[in-house]
Amino acid sequence: MTAMLAARAHAGADALALEKIAVPEPRPGDVLVRVASAGLAPSLMKLLARGSFRHLPSTPGHEIAGTVAAVGPDADASLVGKRVRVHPGLSCRDCAYCRTDREQMCASAAMLGSGAHGTGPMPLYERYHDGGLAEFVRAPAWLVDVLPDRVGFDVAAKVQDFGNALRAVRTADLPPGGTLVVTAATGTMGTATVKLAPHLGASRLILVGRSAERLAAVAAISPLPARTVALDGLGADWETSGGLTRRLLDLAPGGADAVVDYLPHGAGTGQATAALATGATLVAMGGNRSPFPHTARDLQHHCWRVAGTRGCTRADTAAVLDLLGSGALTADELITHRFPLADVGAALTALTGRTEPIWMAVVNP
């Protein structure tokens, strides 16, 4: 095969275009992966609109699993035929961040099949900016992880999201038996956090989301006792009256031990923070641009810790694969939607519109 179908992002476009392009040739140190499953991220079109994709046209898709079809010179030939996931994190591999399990903070940080987030030169991103919304993808051989037998391609494609959630909860530094609040709990990151929480010190969850019905479905799959707070049920004035804080303190009178916050906007982040126990932690991963209502005096008085985090590291995804491979973590039920590559446009519309519950969505080329 010399040509393949790919979803292509073009400058100025508000939708992906399905095109026939050449199958990439593996170069020295590369593998060529036949894509079996590619995860869909709601942020894809937002990153494109912001200019985060620095090489266009390009094939997006940073969550990739499939079978190694070929290898280039200097790559391990025994990888051919192996079931793998492609770790999308690109970095310099040599700076202080990369040497201390913080490669997402590297000045050269970028994502294969996604945006560039660093501030320095990005030679790897220049070479590997094309991602997995295609029939084949080329990647550095050192970025593929051979899959445990019990891990299917669809879950493997979403390991990156589990790695992000694991990094967020670890950053929270929960005390043993802690109460964890998860905001935006009905989305991809929220559901991943719910499944991982028992392995990271939590003993009780409080799940925050817009809809009581959707929250109930997530609570039903939680391995831990879980209470829910539906924003739609707090009253029309909850954002100005502190309704979320009051409800959280009703459920955790002494305050929560941590909040992992995935809210992209609104008053929920600040109000969840106000429901923290003394000495507890807010982990901000939703990128909320609304003004933070607490002062440095508030942080000092309550001994709160506020930590921002973005992405995850190879060590995080390795830990997730270990949990999945051992059977300690199961996640197949989180894959709620599967689409053929030809329907990628409709898939992205469904994912961003959220008119129906979608936990995790994948494309099967």
Structural commentary:
With about 375 residues, the protein is of the alpha/beta class. It folds into two domains: about 5-160 and about 330-365, Medium-chain alcohol dehydrogenases, catalytic domain (Quinone Oxidoreductase, Chain A, domain 1), CATH 3.90.180; about 160-310, NAD(P)-binding Rossmann-like Domain (Rossmann fold, 3-Layer(aba) Sandwich), CATH 3.40.50.720. The protein has twelve helices and 17 strands. The protein has helices spanning about 45-50, 125, 155, 160-170, 190-195, 210-220, 240, 245-250, 270-275, 295-300, 315-325, 345-355, and strands spanning about 5-10, 15-20, 30-40, 65-70, 85, 90, 110, 135-140, 145, 180, 200-210, 225-230, 255-260, 275-285, 305-310, 335-340, 360-365. The strands form four sheets. Strands 3, 4, 5, 8, 9, 16 and 17 form a seven-stranded mixed β-sheet that branches. A six-stranded parallel β-sheet has the order 12-11-10-13-14-15, sandwiched between helices. Strand 1 (about 5-10) and strand 2 (about 15-20) form a beta hairpin. Helix 4 (about 160-170) crosses helix 5 (about 190-195) and helix 4 packs across helix 11 (about 315-325). The longest helix is centred in the middle third of the chain and has 14 residues, at about 160-170. The protein is globular. The two termini are about 15 Å apart. The mean pLDDT is about 95.
In short:
This protein has 365 residues and is of the alpha/beta class. It has helices at residues 44-50, 123-127, 153-157, 159-172, 188-196, 212-220, 238-241, 243-251, 268-273, 296-302, 314-326, 344-353; strands spanning 3-8, 17-22, 30-39, 64-71, 83-86, 89-90, 110-111, 136-140, 144-146, 178-182, 202-209, 226-230, 256-261, 276-284, 305-308, 335-340, 360-364. It folds into two domains: 3-158 and 331-364, Quinone Oxidoreductase, Chain A, domain 1, CATH 3.90.180.10; 162-308, 3-Layer(aba) Sandwich (Rossmann fold).
